[in-house]
Design a protein that fits this description.
Mean pLDDT: 83
Strand content: 25-35%
Radius of gyration: 16 Å
Low-confidence stretches: 3-8, 162-174
Length: about 170
């Protein structure tokens, strides 16, 4: 996991590419960003927010929100410190121009309430999701000290899958 410089108020900040076997069959990935603060009511506990940024380039239909339980379960197993209670994590799905090769609107965050059941999350109903408006998205992004997705991806030390539009240009016939 790529470590983010220490930021006042944050006890944990890390960025990584999260890959998992999507429930529709293909492997897919997203940018996972963990942001943790100390719980003011219990200093030995951490409040953790995980932001999963949807990246273009995965098979159509294999979106983070269509398998948020699988993505979140994999994130807990691979990235989240063992001292963090999975039932207490705040989950956000992040969309923007980096999510699709098509023109898109402003960046958005969707808050998803997930239920932890013994060793994994259960697939939530749509009534467990809340799309934040652009103002709320910007305020929360600032509070969590989220850097632009393109900057984070450029700083990661390994190759990432190319977006579909880049692949389409490479395979275009004359």
């Amino acid at each position: 996991m790529n470590r983010v410089p220490t930021t006042p108020g944050l006890a944990l900040a890390g960025d990584a590419i999260l890959s998992w076997q999507h429930r529709y069959g293909a492997e897919t990935s997203c940018l996972a960003r963990l942001r943790g603060t100390r719980d003011p009511h219990s200093p030995d506990r951490m409040r953790l927010t995980v932001v999963l940024s949807e990246l273009s380039g995965h098979p159509r239909g294999h979106y983070v929100l269509s398998d948020i339980a699988g993505a979140a379960t994999t994130a807990v197993r691979q990235l989240v410190p063992g001292s963090v209670d999975p039932a207490a994590i705040t989950w956000l799905v992040h969309h923007g121009p980096f999510s699709t090769p098509d023109p898109s609107g402003p960046e958005t965050l969707t808050r998803v309430e997930l239920d932890w059941s013994i060793d994994r999350y259960r697939t939530p109903g749509w009534d467990s999701t809340v799309l934040l408006d652009p103002g709320q998205t910007q305020a929360l992004s600032d509070e969590l000290h989220l850097q632009p997705v393109d900057e984070v991806l450029a700083a990661l030390p390994w190759d990432l899958p190319q977006p579909r539009r880049a692949l389409a240009k490479d395979t275009a016939r004359p």
